[in-house]
Structures are given as C-alpha cells and as structure tokens.
Amino acid sequence: MADELRARIRSGALQPGQRMPTQARLADEFGVERGAVRQALRILQSERLLTNVSKGAPATVAADAGRVLTGPAAPPLPTTVALAPRIAAAFGAEHVEIDAVCLTSVSLTLAIGEPLRQIHAGRLKPARVDVRVLLPSRDIDLAFPVPVGGRDGDDDPVHERWLAQRNAQGQVLRHNLLALRATHGIDVRVTFRALPFTPPVKLYLLNGVEALFAYYTLARREALIDHENLEMYDAQGVRSMLFAFERGAGPRDTVFVEQSHLWFDALWETISSELVLTS
Fold first, then answer.
1. Which residue has the higher pLDDT, 271 or 160?
2. pLDDT tens across 200-222, in order?
3. Is residue 92 located within the same domain as residue 221?
4. Domain count of the chain?
C-alpha cells in the first residue's frame, strides 16, 4: 500500500497539499484492516511525504513531497519508485550519459520509459545519449538466481529463464533508445558488455554527477518454470532500496561518485567481454 500511494504522489495523482482519502476509504480500496492503512501512512510520514497522520482527519500530502521524492538527497526508496525520476532528470542534459551494472536491465528499461514519454511529448530533447550496461555473462555459474539444491548440469531452467530475461530486457532497452535516432534525430549509442561474475549490487551512474546504488537482497522463493514449481534463491531487484549520491553534495558523496566511475570504467576496460543479446 505504501508503495502504491508513494507512486501516486510521484506521478502527481496526489498533489502536494492535497488531503488523502480517509482511512476507511483506503481500507476498502486495498481490502485491508485500518491498522494496515495506518502503518502505510506512517511509513510515508517517516519519509516526509505526508503530514498530519493520525486516527482522526485524513493525512495531507507534504508541500515538498515532489522534491523529497526526486531530489538527489531523497531518502532511500525502492528502485521502481526512485529510478525513473532520476533518469528523467538526467535526460534534461544536452549529452546524456548513463552507465549501469545490474543482473538484468529490467529496472533501467522501465525507468527509461518516463524520459521517452517526455521526449515524444516535446518536453525533452537531448542531442546525444550514451548508455553502457554491464551484465553477467551467460557462460558463468551465477551466484543467483539458482535452484535451492544447486545446478544440475547444463540443463538448468532457472539459469535459462534468467538468460531469456537478460536478453529480452536488453533488446527492449536498446530498441527503444535507438528508435530516437529515426523519430527525433538524437545521436544514440547503447553498448552492452559481459561480466565474469554475478554483481551483488546494482549501480547507475548518471551524467558523471550522480551515483544510484542498491543491494541485491536474496530470498528463498518458489516459481513456476516450465510447468514445474522450483525453489530458488533469487533477488527482487526492482524492489531494492536505492541510495542516491551526488557530486558536490559533500565530500563523501563526491568521492563515492568518483570512485564508482573509476570502478565501472575499470570493469568495462579490463575483464568484461563482448555481449551478444541472443539466446
């Protein structure tokens, strides 16, 4: 519930200063008890998105909720909430530079949708876009996702599903960005390279001034793959909490951004290899 209400605030469906629906209406909409509603509202209040959260009158969207959600000093939020507005802000530059290290590019692909909509609406028009993405190689034994009992030879449906997702998301990302050449005359370059290890974190570097960082947190879960329920250790990257760092926001932030770029460039130029997004 907190994620959904946060997304409504970010999208503008709930405006700063607007009163929230009553707790009774929210409980009815989400099909939960009022205690769950109060807990979700308190979460958003702790993130400085709501004010006047109590058992009485409806809460109010904070006057500075937009800045809290989209500014580089925003508190950590799930990747699905935090990444899109930062990517959209990065596309306001004349030359957009995005580097990413991730398990698949699903979060980046989803986040790119927002600036693409703004470009097609005529609100953004960068002259050049350069995107570099580091993904795990198809030829390594991934640390995750993996079956709980371990891989059984080369015929591993968990690995094959991850590979299909990696390739499909990468192809969609590349296609959507390269289409800007024909539709808007934007100079676009999208390049993928393969890592010889499973990244335990995800990292997005934006225009040389921002670094967005999240941990992949593993959990044991069951999934239906090839008509069979399989238990695996997996990470839900789209829900990973994203921490933002900005060059110039302070010594620690500046050093983190600089060192993150050095780390990415070193991986790109040394141990990574050509990646072809095919099965």
1. 271
2. 999 999 999 999 999 999 999 98
3. yes
4. 2
190 and 232 in a common domain: yes
Task: From 66, 93, 121, give the residue that closes a domain.
Answer: 66
Residue 122 lies in a domain: yes
Quick: pLDDT tens for 223-266: 888 788 889 999 987 888 999 999 888 899 999 999 999 999 99
Residues 97 and 208 in one domain: yes
SS (H, E, C) the chain: CHHHHHHHHHHCCCCCCCECCCHHHHHHHHCCCHHHHHHHHHHHHHCCCEECCCCCCCCEECCCHHHHHHCCCCCCEEHHHHHHHHHHHHCCCCEEEEEEECCCCHHHHHHHHHHHHHHHCCCCCCCEEEEEEEEECCCCCCCCCEECCCCCCCCCHHHHHHHHHHHHHHHHHHHHHHHHHHHHCCEEEEEEEEECCCCCEEEEEECCCEEEEEECCEEEEEEEECCEEEEEEEECHHHCEEEEEECCCCHHHHHHHHHHHHHHHHHHHCCCEECCCCC
Domain limits for position 244: 71-274
